[in-house]
C-alpha cells in the first residue's frame, strides 16, 4: 500500500515494511553465508587436493621401491650361486633361475616345461623319483644327492633340497647346490684311503713274506750243516783216500755247492731288483745252451728217478743273449721240474720258434702241478708251491723269480700253465730272434781257459785264518808257491820279501782295508807291477768300480771257486816289473 503524503503509517504498513527489510537482510545474510560456505568448501577441496597429491607421491615412491626390490630379487634369484626351480608333481620345471640354465646348458625358454628327471644320470633316476614322491607326500623338506648330465654330456653332482607348497596347485620349490668339488674331494679321500689300505696290506704281506723267507732261509742254510759236520767227523776217522773218505768229500762238495747256489740266488735277486745286472750279450744258438744245460742237470733227474727228454730245433735258433744267464734260466727251470716231479715222471725240454719272430723254450713236466693261486704269484720272490713243514722240496723260492728277471732283461717274457694240482706244469720262455745267415758267426760261451798252467807265486792277505789256510793248501796242491798275511801292513812287508806274481787280497781287512792295501801297492815302486785280485762277498757295480779305482785288476766274489781262480792264474801275464797304469774296471767272477 502506498502511503499518502501527510498520512501517518499505520501498524500494518510498518509491519510489512519491517518484514520486507528483514527478508532483505536474511537474503543478504543467506547470500553471504553461501559465499562463505563456498569459500570454505573450496578451501577444503584445495586441502584435499594437496593431500591426494602427497599420497600419490608416496604411492609412486612405494611403487618405485617395490619395483627396485623386485628387480633386486630377480637378480638375486637369477644370479644366485645355487639353482632355484619350481617343479610340479611330475618333476616338470615351472620356473628356473639362470644358474639352473648354466648348470644344464639350456636356455630358460627351453628349460621350462622340461622334466628335471631328464637330466638326472641313469643310475640315479630311481632315487630322484623316490625323492620327489616323498616331497609331495610329506609336504615337508626333503633332500637327496644325484648326478646331473648337461647338454654337453658332462656330469656333475648336486645336492637338492625341496619343500612342497599347495598355493592353488600342488608344486614344490627346490634348491640345487653344485657339490662336484666336495664329491671330488671325498672321492680323492676315498681313493687315498683305498691306496693306504692297499699299501698297508702290501706291507703286511711283505712282512709275512719276509718272515716266511727268513724261516725258509734258516731251514735251507741249516740243512747242509748236518751232513757237512758228519762228513768232517768221518774224514777225521776214516782212512785217507778210502771209500768212506771219498763219500764224505763228495757230500761236503754237494752241500757247499748248495750253499753257493743259495747265496748266488740271493745276490742275483738283489742285483736284478736294484738294476745292477750287466749282461754280456753275444749271438748264440739256443739249441746249444739248452743241450749243454740239460746234460749238466741230467744227473739230478737220474737221482730223482725222473725221465728227462730234450727236443732241439731242426736248425739254429739264434738270439742275442748272455750265455751264462740263459744257462741259469734253463737250469732253474730244470731244477724246478726235477724238484716237483714225482719219481717215475717225465720232463720234456724243447726249443723252437713261435712263428712271430721269436724264440721259445718249453719245459713241461708231469709233476704236482699248481693251483690258480700259485700260478698268479709263481714268479714273485719267495713264492713256494711246497708249503709243508718238512719242506721236502727245498729251495727258498727265488729260482723262478730269477728266471723272470733274467728273461725280461733280455726283452723277453716267461709264462706258466697248469691244469691244476696233480696235472703237471709247463713253463715257456719267449725271446726276440736275431736272425743271421751263417750260424758259424755265433759266438760260443766262454770256455775254460786253455792257457798254459804254470806255478805262480801267490800272496794271500786274509784276516780269516781258516779261509787263508784252506786257500793256501788248495793252491799248494796245484804246485803254486804261497804265502799268507792276516793284515794289510803284514802283507806289504811280505810282498817286498816274497815278490809274488799275484796278490789275493780280502777287502774287509781290519784297520787297513783292502782298498787301502791296493793303493799302497800301486804307490810303491817295487810293488806296483804286481797283479792284484780283490776278494769280497760284495760284487755289485759300485763294488767293481771302487776296486778298479783302488788299483785291482780283477774282482772275485766269495765263496771262491778254485777252478775259476786257477783259470785266472793261468792267464796272468809274466810281467812282474811292468809299469802300472790304472786298470780297467775288474770283472767279477
Separation of the first and last Cα atoms: 176 Å
Order of the strands making up the biggest sheet: 2-1-5-4-3
Q: Estimate the global geometry from the Cα principal axes.
A: elongated
Q: Supply the CATH superfamily name of the largest domain.
A: Histidine kinase-like ATPase, C-terminal domain
Tell me what portion of residues adopts beta-strand conformation: 15-25%
CATH architecture of the largest domain: 2-Layer Sandwich
CATH fold assignment of the largest domain? Heat Shock Protein 90
In which range does the helix fraction lie?
Answer: 40-55%
Biggest sheet features: 5 strands, antiparallel
Structural class: alpha/beta
Compute the number of strand runs: 17
Query: Segments where pLDDT lies below 50 for 5+ residues?
Result: 386-394, 435-450, 576-585
CATH class of the largest domain: Alpha Beta
Mean pLDDT: 80
Q: How is this structure best described in words?
A:
Helices cover 49% and strands 19% of the residues. The protein is α/β, with parallel strands linked by helices and 589 residues long. The chain folds into five domains: 17-74; 83-178, PAS domain (Beta-Lactamase); 183-273, Orthogonal Bundle (Helix Hairpins); 282-441, Heat Shock Protein 90; 457-571, Rossmann fold (3-Layer(aba) Sandwich), CATH 3.40.50.2300. Helix 5 (180-237) packs antiparallel against helix 6 and helix 12 runs parallel beside helix 13. The protein is elongated.
Amino acid at each position: 500500500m502506498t502511503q499518502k503524503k501527510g498520512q501517518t503509517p499505520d501498524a500494518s504498513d510498518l509491519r510489512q515494511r519491517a518484514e520486507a527489510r528483514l527478508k532483505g537482510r536474511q537474503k543478504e545474510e543467506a547470500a553471504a553465508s553461501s559465499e562463505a560456505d563456498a569459500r570454505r568448501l573450496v578451501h577444503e577441496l584445495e586441502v584435499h587436493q594437496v593431500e591426494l597429491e602427497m599420497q600419490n607421491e608416496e604411492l609412486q615412491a612405494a611403487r618405485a621401491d617395490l619395483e627396485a626390490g623386485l628387480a633386486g630379487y630377480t637378480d638375486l634369484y637369477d644370479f644366485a650361486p645355487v639353482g632355484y626351480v619350481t617343479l610340479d608333481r611330475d618333476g616338470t620345471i615351472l620356473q628356473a633361475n639362470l644358474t639352473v640354465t648354466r648348470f644344464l646348458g639350456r636356455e630358460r625358454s627351453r628349460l621350462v616345461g622340461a622334466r628335471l628327471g631328464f637330466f638326472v644320470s641313469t643310475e640315479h633316476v630311481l632315487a630322484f623319483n623316490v625323492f620327489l614322491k616323498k616331497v609331495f607326500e610329506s609336504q615337508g623338506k626333503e633332500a637327496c644327492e644325484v648326478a646331473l648330465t648337461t647338454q654337453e654330456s658332462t656330469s656333475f653332482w648336486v645336492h637338492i633340497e625341496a619343500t612342497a607348497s599347495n598355493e592353488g596347485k600342488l608344486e614344490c620349490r627346490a634348491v640345487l647346490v653344485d657339490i662336484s668339488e666336495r664329491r671330488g674331494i671325498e672321492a680323492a679321500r676315498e681313493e687315498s684311503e683305498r691306496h693306504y689300505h692297499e699299501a698297508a696290506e702290501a706291507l703286511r704281506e711283505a712282512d709275512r713274506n719276509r718272515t716266511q723267507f727268513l724261516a725258509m732261509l734258516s731251514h735251507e742254510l741249516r740243512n747242509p750243516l748236518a751232513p757237512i759236520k758228519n762228513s768232517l767227523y768221518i774224514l777225521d776217522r776214516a782212512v785217507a783216500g778210502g771209500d768212506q773218505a771219498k763219500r764224505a768229500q763228495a757230500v761236503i762238495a754237494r752241500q757247499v755247492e748248495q750253499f753257493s747256489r743259495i747265496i748266488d740266488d740271493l745276490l742275483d735277486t738283489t742285483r736284478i731288483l736294484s738294476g745292477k745286472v750287466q749282461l754280456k750279450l753275444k749271438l748264440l744258438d739256443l739249441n746249444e745252451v739248452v743241450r749243454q744245460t740239460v746234460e749238466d742237470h741230467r744227473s739230478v733227474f737220474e737221482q730223482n728217478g725222473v725221465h728227462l727228454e730234450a727236443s732241439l730245433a731242426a736248425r739254429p735258433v739264434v738270439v742275442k743273449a748272455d750265455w751264462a744267464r740263459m744257462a741259469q734260466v734253463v737250469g732253474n727251470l730244470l731244477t724246478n721240474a726235477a724238484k716237483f716231479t714225482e719219481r717215475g715222471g717225465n720232463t720234456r725240454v724243447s726249443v723252437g720258434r713261435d712263428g712271430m719272430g721269436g724264440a721259445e723254450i718249453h719245459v713241461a713236466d708231469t709233476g704236482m702241478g699248481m693251483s690258480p693261486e700259485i700260478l698268479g704269484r709263481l714268479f714273485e720272490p719267495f713264492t713256494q708251491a711246497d708249503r709243508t713243514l718238512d719242506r721236502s722240496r727245498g729251495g727258498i723260492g727265488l729260482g723262478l723269480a730269477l728266471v723272470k728277471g733274467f728273461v725280461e732283461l733280455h726283452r723277453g717274457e716267461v709264462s706258466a700253465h697248469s691244469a691244476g694240482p696233480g696235472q703237471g706244469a709247463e713253463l715257456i720262455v719267449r725271446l726276440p730272434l736275431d736272425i743271421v745267415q751263417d750260424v758259424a758267426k755265433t759266438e760260443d760261451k766262454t770256455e775254460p781257459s786253455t792257457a798254459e798252467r804254470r806255478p805262480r807265486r801267490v800272496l794271500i792277505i786274509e784276516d780269516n785264518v781258516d779261509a787263508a789256510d784252506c786257500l793256501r793248501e788248495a793252491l799248494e796242491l796245484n804246485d803254486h808257491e804261497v804265502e799268507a798275511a792276516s793284515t794289510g801292513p803284514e802283507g806289504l812287508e811280505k810282498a817286498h820279501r816274497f815278490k809274488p806274481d799275484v796278490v789275493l787280497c780280502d777287502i774287509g781287512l781290519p784297520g787297513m782295508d783292502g782298498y787301502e792295501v791296493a793303493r799302497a801297492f800301486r804307490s810303491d815302486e817295487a810293488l806296483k807291477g804286481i797283479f792284484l785280485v780283490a776278494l769280497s762277498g760284495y760284487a755289485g757295480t759300485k763294488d767293481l768300480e771302487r776296486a778298479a779305482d783302488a788299483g785291482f785288476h780283477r774282482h772275485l766274489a766269495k765263496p771262491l771257486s778254485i777252478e775259476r781262480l786257477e783259470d785266472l792264474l793261468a792267464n796272468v801275464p809274466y810281467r812282474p816289473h811292468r809299469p802300472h797304469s790304472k786298470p780297467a774296471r775288474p770283472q767279477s767272477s
